[in-house]
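Q: Plastid-lipid associated protein PAP / fibrillin family protein isoform 2, please. Structure only.
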Amino acid sequence: MALSPNFHSIFATSQSSSKSASPKLPASHSSLTNLHFPNKTVRGNSYNLSRTSASDEKWRANVSFFPAFLNKGKDAKALKEELLEAIAPLDRGADATLEDQQRVDQIARKLEAVSPTKEPLKSDLLNGKWVLIYTTSKSILQTQRPKFLRSTANYQAINTDTLRAQNMDSWPFFNQVTADLTPLNARKVAVKFDSFKIGGLIPIRAPGRARGELEITYLDEELR
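A: Structure for Plastid-lipid associated protein PAP / fibrillin family protein isoform 2:
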């Protein structure tokens, strides 16, 4: 999942219900004493949705990036169902029109307003491995490539105990990137990538400019 200054939001649904130990992520390669998180900036009209991997019950987390807005009407359960229904036919966002993106944005903002977790960085719900189910980030969707050269799935793992995070692509390239997280407040972290792994095998140190921020604006047992 590439670093993008125009990438603003991520949702994630957890398929795992166990509250087991936090995921073990690679140690930091940087000399910094504080840890950060893989970059996702909160500006513009970009959104991402993820589900946690059902194959590993040790992983679960939720992340989203939206400013909070007041919402009256539907409860969180109804809004989540509406959101998942809206993104289901969009191929993780690759097939989304501008109208589709605006609709997802509107639902997500309403959902943020009823988030049950006010301090997500202090919640165990954040820990885990999540699979992306929607984004407007073209760099993550790799829409400039033919479909057969795009990643079939994207994962993100977060460990709040060690303040480490990792983004992982699946077939056909299996690229990875790890990052340190530095808390800025109860729901926002500064992100500094420290190492890329090409094909899951060849390590490359990340450039110093590979950094950003991540704000978690909604988090429950199923969605972030």
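A: Brief note, in case it's useful. The longest helix spans residues 98-112.
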